[in-house]
Write a structure and sequence with these properties.
Layout lengths: L8 H9 L15 H4 L4 H9 L8 E3 L5 E8 L7 H11 L3 H20 L7 E5 L5 H7 L3 H13 L7 E3 L12 H9 L2 E3 L9 E10 L3 H12 L4 E10 L13
Parallel strand pairs: 2-7, 3-6, 6-7
Antiparallel strand pairs: 1-2, 4-5
Helix pairs in contact: 5-7, 8-9
């Protein structure tokens, strides 16, 4: 019989003072499960039912970029378990949640990298930075935390290669597809030295892919700065058709 898991005094005290809850239903998690799990058994099943099938978790977009995602997402839905997890990621800076998602996403990401031709020699994980006003309000950047969690899980380095400009005024969630494209176009700029990205494959990480406007804008900047390739990675992506979606820019 294996030895019982040891839990540090500080971690145990934190657990007692702020017991973790199930991301799906809000119920308190059992002591042992609450250390590494984020769902109760019922919500875990619902979460896994939302997984994209193996034939769909890697898709080639019209612009030629590959998108890797874990679960289906329904924009505007609030009662689904995947949607609740994304909401939690945006509003609660819980390392256990980001670590849990990274563990599930990492094998799919590693498989996608292994299939790339030519095989990448240098990998860098980065992310589209959150609006400063949202960071001030929430106290963290969910895409940054996801990138860091994936870095811990895969061992690949992470670097903040992108910065926000002051040109973007509105949050993407309040806009339609065409407005998102225009809003994202001038919202970012590169924060890398000349030649720094030469020969690198950049893994661009975000929480959810809806129209893809943000990822398109950032990928275009990274490629223009010298990256050999950009691989898009999100926890979730919408699978329903989005009306009036303009064609993504070709890179």
């Amino acid at each position: 019989m294996g030895k019982p898991q040891r839990i540090s005094f500080a971690k145990g005290l934190l657990f007692l003072l702020f017991p973790p809850t199930c991301v799906g239903c809000g119920e308190l998690m059992p002591w042992r499960e609450g250390q590494d799990e984020v769902f109760c058994p019922v919500c875990r099943e619902a979460w896994q039912q939302g997984f994209l099938p193996a034939s769909e978790n890697m898709v080639r977009r019209e612009d030629g970029l590959t998108l890797v995602s874990l679960v289906k997402y329904h924009s505007g839905k609030t009662d689904g378990v995947p949607e609740k997890l994304i909401y939690r990621m945006k509003h609660k800076n819980e390392r256990r949640v980001f670590s849990y998602v990274a563990k599930a996403l990492a094998p799919i990401l590693e498989d996608a990298v292994s299939r790339m031709e030519p095989r990448p020699e240098e990998l860098i994980i980065t992310y589209p930075p959150r609006r400063p006003s949202a960071v001030r309000k929430e106290g963290f950047d969910q895409a940054e935390q996801l990138a860091l969690a994936l870095s811990r899980e895969t061992g690949w380095p992470t670097d903040a290669l992108l910065l926000r400009t002051r040109k973007r005024k509105k949050a993407q969630k309040s806009l339609d597809a065409a407005e998102r494209q225009a809003n994202a176009k001038d919202a970012y700029r590169i924060d890398a030295k000349e030649g720094e990205l030469a020969g690198a494959t950049v893994i661009l990480v975000d929480d959810v892919h809806t129209t893809g406007a943000t990822l398109s804008a950032c990928a275009k900047l990274l490629l223009a700065a010298g990256a050999d390739a950009v691989l898009l990675v999100t926890v979730a992506r919408t699978t329903q058709n989005i009306p009036d979606l303009p064609e993504e820019p070709k890179f």
